[in-house]
Amino acid sequence: MSSFSDRLLGRVRLGGLLAVAAPLLAIVFAGLVTSLILALTGNPPLETMKLLADYGAQSRTIVMIINLATTYYISALAVAIGFRMNLFNIGVDGQYRLAALIAAAVGGALVLPAPLHVGVTILVAVAVGGIWASIAGLLKVTRGVSEVISTIMLNAIATGVGAWLLTTDRLAVAVSGSNNIGTKPIPPSGQFPGFSLIPGTQAQVFGFVVIAALLGIGYHVLFNRTRFGFDLRATGKSESAAIASGVNVKKMVLLTMIISGAVAGLVGMPQLLGASYSYSLDFPPGLGFTGIAIALLGRNNPVGIAIGALLWSFLDNSSDILDLEGIPKEIVIIMQGTIVLSVIVAYELVHRYRLAAEQRRVSRELSTNAPAPLEGAAA
Amino acid sequence: MEAVISTSTSPATATDNAVELEGITKRFPGVVANRDIRLSVRPGHVHAIVGENGAGKSTLMKILYGMQRPDEGVIRVNGSPIAFRSPADAIAAGIGMVHQHFMLADNLTVLENIILGSEPRRRGVGIDFALARAKIAEISAAYGLGVGPDVLVEDLGVGARQRVEILKVLYRGARILILDEPTAVLVPQEVEELFGNLRRLVDQGLTIIFISHKLDEVLSVADAITVIRRGTTVASVDPKDVTARQLAELMVGSELPSPETRESTVTDQVALAVRNLTVRDADGRAVVEDVSFDIHKGEVLGIAGVEGNGQAELVEAVMGMRPAQGVIKLGDADVSAWPTLRRREGGIGYIPEDRQRHGLLLESPLWENRILGHQTRKPNVKGPWIDRAGARADTQRIVTEYDVRTPGIDVDAAALSGGNQQKLIVGREMSGDPVVLIASHPTRGVDVGAQAAIWDHLRAARAAGLAVLLISADLDELIGLSDSLKVILRGRVVADVDPGHVTPERLGSAMTGAKDEITPAPPPATGVVPEPPGPATTGIKGGAVPEQPGPPTGGSPDQLGSAKADAGEEA
Amino acid sequence: MLRTHAGKLAATTAVGAMLMAAAACGGSSDTGTATSAPAASSASSAAPTGPKVGLAYDIGGRGDQSFNDAAAAGLEKAKSELSLADTKELEAGSGETGAQKEQRLRLLAQGGYNPVIAVGFAYSEAIKKVAKEFPDTKFAIIDDAAEGPNISNLVFAENEGSFLVGAVAALKTKKDHIGFVGGVQVPLIKKFEVGFTRGAQAVKPDIKIDVKYLTQPPDFGGFNDPAKGKTAAEGMYDAGADIVYQAAGGSGGGVFEAAKAAKGFAIGVDSDQALTADEGVRSVILTSMLKKVDVAVFDFLKSYTDGTVQAGVKVYDLKAGGVDFSTTGGQVDDVKNKVDEYKQKIIDGTIKVPAE
């Protein structure tokens, strides 16, 4: 039987309509809870929701939502890769920060023609993320150190290394007239062009959204169509069965950790190559942790994660409009938390329902389709 | 063979019994757990429940202790029907459980461990240690448990820890104690002590339910015995009227269709050769020691032994899932250093003992389960890609050929009954054109129809030249299917047996170590029929037999081997 | 770690790194149009006819015991003394991107808020972009010199103020051993350290100075972790220091507690902490380095209502009275004259305090 954590991490599939029922149930429930809180704090729930919806429908807001969701999506994919085989890569945060910093420094220092410049910068990020994550993988494989512990430690170490590197003595340059410092800005040849997707605004969608979509497709193909993905999923579902089937679990742990880290290395790229062009003190931190929540929300499914990332991004981007209207912006955090919790609970309920239903269905179909004497008792 | 023993449950009046179970049935998806269990435990008795692993003992105990709720049936405690929703209810009803694996915090004292979770309160807040200490001393003295309350648990030996567990249960007011395989972790002296303690307890009017599959121990300590087989109670007997041999028969049963395969298909080509295989556990103790054998094409080699004597480790070593010393040759190739996958690719098929843990991805559809263990081979893959169409088509074939009863191949494996899960596994392992098949309890927990089908498939494959290593606790199956048999005890092969000339009773006795009851006559005493010269038999027998210590009375001689190691561990 | 307090960054006080950058000001400031702007934007018929002021805080917002609070104080003062039609305060969230900061400023500008004040250098890039989009709105940013025809930069010479309290520490120490606790190791706080060190060394060239930063970016928790501040300061007192200067925002309270326990002294920052800290620890605060963000905010709003807003850098240094040291409690009366001499030398340029 699947454990609760299997279901929590979406290693157990739900089929058909039920797959849709769970998140719908959860969002409706989260909506109710939020409304209740709004009402209790003296804010009209319906009007607040309308305010959010109206704001979210503005062209510029849509661009912002897509752009932020791109970053969240990559982060959640990185986390989900580990989740699929029971690895909790809490270290996505440190991996992307370090990767973005070093990639920014390399990108800022290079002089190369445009596509190559972007490519090299991205490769550096991928390599740094993968290498940093491989430390946790190696520790787990050789010394049995829990990756949860080691990645948390590595996050702290990444912070220290990053702070050490990001000084004017090393990778950073002072931004003129500011108290900020950052890496040397990446010249236009190294920038990832955005494009105008949404009419009615000059704001551009990150070009990286294409890369994120490709990553999602790659994720799906890797897990569902390749031998490697099969081994990885098998290990996640039942390590004992995977070992018996000949999977080298240690190798899988290491590889998965590296792949997760390599994808994590990309998390900072939309922001770096599409907006800030430099890694400075205000480079957004904490994206790795948001990724964990979204991976849970999206049940490790690439489409689910995309929806989760958009929802999360929408809520994050709405906090200011609430603030502006005098509604406590913390309501957004409450909504995010409630949604994650309700999704977990809803999936658990739906899973139980589905398990019982499938068993009933199997025995029913067998008794009607196969009039031949059934074996044994209703084992 | 049941004629010897009355299989009727003694219809004692319910009100007299400490525990009375009637018609308890528990279904889990895919497995038979308990079916129509009947059990009457008289107060002041040590009541043993015996059965093979997987016979349903543990489920029964979980039901009794409130960890699981039966689908049908009635539980009566001291005459009144009762429904447990949780262990807390069972504790409230005076039932306590001593688990096989101790649940003690090493870094706390005995006293702290005992009161953990039911601390006596002083004025609602503080813990009343004085009261607890007095109560523990009183209980300890009353039952002769002799445990000091202020010793750190980590300083205690295994036997003492077990007494702490018992004390813990008594402290919570239990009058009925369930002991789950209590002797599994003890050396013989400690077993004697434990039995002494148990006697004290029942003398004081407590009731003990004692779960075991060690027949000698059961016979020496129990006042009454109930045998469980295949999830149901098959007999309740008085230990005075029964021998270990008869108990073994009851446990294993013999009402099954015969797995006979007589005309030999054995060839002289060795398919699998194992030489001097030794497997050590984490503590460095040899759990498989110096085992050697050959299996020829077309031969079924059976390994007989009480569970826990190294069979599982032997299988895992042959599969490359567990490090081992010695040589394993597949045909002409030395595969000792090969990883599991390569061995599988080389033609070793594997029907694991625990199909749910090792054989299946329960939450994956059947066609993905078809790929498991064959993820490098056609028709499942094309290069690095999974060939969904190929795998699905082949799954459909297995479902048809092996009569797997399922509405389709997209159903999760968990939704299938145990028998159908097993047929799927057998079908899958046969599909890889195996040269050698390792079949570990291939028909355990499987219903009768599926069992016959699996036997048929094994026989057919054997006739086609497959070499089979068969591990089973079902003696009829072993004797019926095997071309040759080896008895394993404490990790060593102690005897070779000709399946053509052995009865389940004799084989069972050799396995359980109750050899003196089998053939009282000849001094070699194993009671096993002399083995006609067969492959790889010489040397093994001679080496092993003399090691067996002459058991005086009672006790459990088969524990002595491990006694040393256990004592070492404790130091 | 889940939530790094990203933005308290600009935290405590800022030294006028760009003292001279003031030259950049004046650029294209068009005071004429500026005055007309408020009329256009606050077309609302609300009773007070003054401007609608928008304020965007960095992470932490009101209640951070640091510069966000100081900015809020300036706004409060403006509310009571100038006739403001409306005020709106928005606050940054943790882990947000530059785009979100832009959007915050944009929402304020779109909502007719004019002027808009951004608190903290994290808004540097954001304010440049948004100011371009809303040329008729006046923007101000604290602690940053982001350029734009409608951006006023309110920057401070934290190094000069810190020089003075460094001198105080060196004059008052009995052990020739003092300490500095910085919240987060960023260039801004480095200015405090440099000023403090120079000031102390100006008095006693051989003085021993312990330096400790509580966290490193992007972990900005060092600005809001009194326990960390306490531990760091305890270490310094144990090692023999008797006066510790804290530039650690909300963590400073821990430094004061440690000072009290060690019977040592401490130096406050930003506001006159001998007046604002917990009453129990006020007695250990010799002096405070004053960084008058509130004054800067109020001045800016005042100039707006007067129609005299100037774009470009306005440096709040010693000369302008933007930074200073406090004498509350009278504990530094004996050395005040000496310190005032240094102050005068800095003002007249005889002493130049480096920023890094």
From TrEMBL, chain A:
Membrane-spanning ranges: 12-41, 61-83, 95-114, 120-141, 148-166, 203-223, 252-273, 331-350
Bilayer topology term: Multi-pass membrane protein
Location in or out of the cell: Cell membrane
Stretch forming the signal peptide: none
Key words of the record: Cell membrane, Membrane, Transmembrane, Transmembrane helix
Organism: Sphaerisporangium corydalis
Pfam family, one: BPD_transp_2
Keyword Transmembrane helix: yes
Protein name as it appears in the record: ABC transporter permease
From TrEMBL, chain B:
ABC transporter domain span: 19-255, 272-515
Pfam families, A to Z: ABC_tran (PF00005)
Keywords: ATP-binding, Nucleotide-binding, Repeat, Transport
Pro residues bias (residue ranges): 520-535
SMART domains in the cross-refs: AAA
InterPro entries assigned: AAA+_ATPase, ABC_carbohydrate_import_ATPase, ABC_transporter-like_ATP-bd, ABC_transporter-like_CS, P-loop_NTPase
Top-rank taxon: Bacteria
Sample GO molecular function, one term: ATP binding
Region spans: Disordered: 501-571
UniProt protein name: ABC transporter ATP-binding protein
Automatic annotation (TrEMBL), chain C:
Compartments where located: Cell membrane
Protein origin, superkingdom: Bacteria
Domain ABC transporter substrate-binding protein PnrA-like: 58-355
Main location: membrane
The UniProt record lists the keyword Signal: yes
UniProt signal peptide: 1-23
Record key words, sorted: Cell membrane, Lipoprotein, Membrane, Signal
Name the UniProt record assigns to this protein: BMP family protein
